[in-house]
Design a protein that fits this description.
InterPro entries: Poly_Biosynth_Transport, Polysacc_synth. The protein is mostly helical. It is 86% helix and 0% strand.
């Protein structure tokens, strides 16, 4: 038993090493985003910062919805069946290009309707959407790398934000920063990342692959489930800014955007557990299914490997989210005036309203990835759908009365409801009774502590 326990801990180390590397990259990316956010807040002002938040929120939401879950499908099937990776990536890239063109044209035409009273922001909106085909195609290679080479994937995803920060900094100290210049830096960094990802993928997998109808069917089938699960989450995560953009002044959106950015401080660490768990669970499930078929034990229940990975991912991400939200809430009254200036004081109160939900949001994203890695995307759709319904109702009721404060309250309530439903779904998926969760958590912690206390004798212990 002790040998089996130690072997499990050793396997956990591989997973946690990937999480640490991914979290470190995410923290670097977040730090770059934070520095850029400070520059934008100070140099563009609340109105300019709010306009940029509107442009990027619409563009990111459109990309996340418009790709129809294909990026997650590419990651899932490349991890599950590496031998078919070239065909999966080639077919997925063709599908994503077509979807990117559709989304780009739609957003370009909708720009005057979203920002009718701000021609500069409307022009920036249209330009960003014109680049959507490049964004979609680059995602094909980026998500394939997530399934095969985690270190290379981390390097690839760091390129865009770091390069954009450099561009924004150069403009800030030379010709001055404007909304148009910020958008130009965004687009150049996206193009460079696309080329970088394509080159790294071809170096890793020289075979180009072919566009195959059966691969397209598999990708679209899995992607449909992810789409149905991602759409409610995106509504919960983005609908507040999208609605506020239509109902309140851009400066109010700017205050809210700053508060949201601060509330998400734990996300780089939390989501790393899901980023690593999703392809890992896809591989583990495939191996376990093959072993079960070979042994004639198809109904033996959830295998221990996926169960441990899922429980570690969910539990650790929840702990990180709670700690980070508490620390940020305590520091906000000191940090905000000194870093952003006194005019951003309203953001502190908004952060306090957002913090409880933000503590759970990272764990929600991890549980989404865990369930998708276990091929249960439709379960995610049902859980996130309930949260989205609460978001819509909350925004409709509270924003007209309370403004941005109402949006913060609605978001917290929705994230909490989603967490409860998703956590229950994970427990069912890995066959863990809820009453046993505290004991299992203690057992995992005890095993980790014991592994740290182990001393290897000099001379090897022959």
């Amino acid at each position: 038993m002790a040998t089996g326990r130690h072997r499990s801990v050793d396997r956990d180390r591989g997973y946690l090493a990937g999480v640490r590397a991914t979290a470190a990259t995410s923290l670097a990316v977040t730090a770059a985003g934070a520095v850029q956010g400070i520059l934008l807040a100070r140099l563009l002002g609340p109105a300019g910062r709010g306009a940029y938040a509107i442009v990027t929120s619409y563009a990111s939401a459109a990309a996340a919805v418009g790709e129809c879950g294909l990026t997650a499908a590419i990651c899932f099937f490349v991890a599950r069946q590496p031998g078919r990776a070239p065909d999966v990536v080639r077919t997925g890239g063709a599908l994503l290009l077509a979807l990117g063109v559709v989304v780009g044209v739609g957003g370009y035409l909708a720009a005057p309707l979203v920002l009718p009273h701000d021609p500069t922001a409307a022009r920036a909106f249209a330009i960003v959407f014109a680049a959507e085909p490049v964004i979609f195609v680059s995602a094909c290679w980026v998500f394939a790398l997530q399934a095969t080479r985690l270190a290379v994937w981390n390097l690839t995803r760091a390129v865009q934000p770091l390069l954009q920060l450099v561009g924004v900094g150069v403009l800030a100290v030379t010709v001055g920063l404007t909304l148009g210049g910020t958008v130009a830096c965004l687009l150049v960094s996206i193009a460079v990342q696309a080329v970088f990802a394509a080159v790294l993928w071809r170096l890793d997998v020289p075979t180009r692959g072919r566009i195959r109808r059966d691969e397209a069917r598999r990708l679209l089938r899995y992607g449909a489930g992810v789409f149905l699960s991602a759409l409610p989450y995106l509504l919960s995560a983005q609908l507040d800014i999208l609605i506020l953009a239509l109902l309140v002044e851009p400066a109010q959106v700017g205050y809210y955007a700053v508060a949201v950015s601060m509330s998400l401080i734990s996300q780089p660490i939390c989501v790393a557990f899901g980023n690593v768990a999703m392809p890992r669970l896809a591989r583990q499930s495939a191996v376990a299914a093959g072993a079960a078929v070979a042994a004639g034990a198809g109904g033996a229940g959830a295998p221990s490997g996926p169960r441990r990975t899922a429980m570690i991912a969910v539990g650790a991400s929840l702990a990180c989210g709670i700690v980070a939200a508490g620390v940020m809430s305590a520091l906000a009254p000191i940090v905000v005036p000194r870093v952003l200036g006194a005019r951003y004081g309203p953001s502190v109160h908004l952060l306090w309203l957002l913090a409880p939900g933000a503590a759970l949001l990272g764990c929600n994203r991890v549980t989404d990835d865990v369930l998708r890695g276990l091929d249960r995307a439709l379960t995610v759709a049902r859980c996130e759908g309930a949260g989205s319904a609460l978001t819509v109702v909350g925004l409709a009721v509270l924003v007209p009365i309370l403004g941005v404060e109402g949006a913060a309250i609605a978001s917290t309530v929705a994230y909490t409801a989603s967490f409860l439903l998703l956590f229950r779904a994970v427990l069912r998926a890995v066959d863990v009774p809820a009453r046993t969760v505290p004991a299992r958590a203690y057992g995992l912690l005890a095993a980790r502590a014991a592994s740290r206390r182990r001393v290897v004798p000099l001379g090897g212990g022959r």
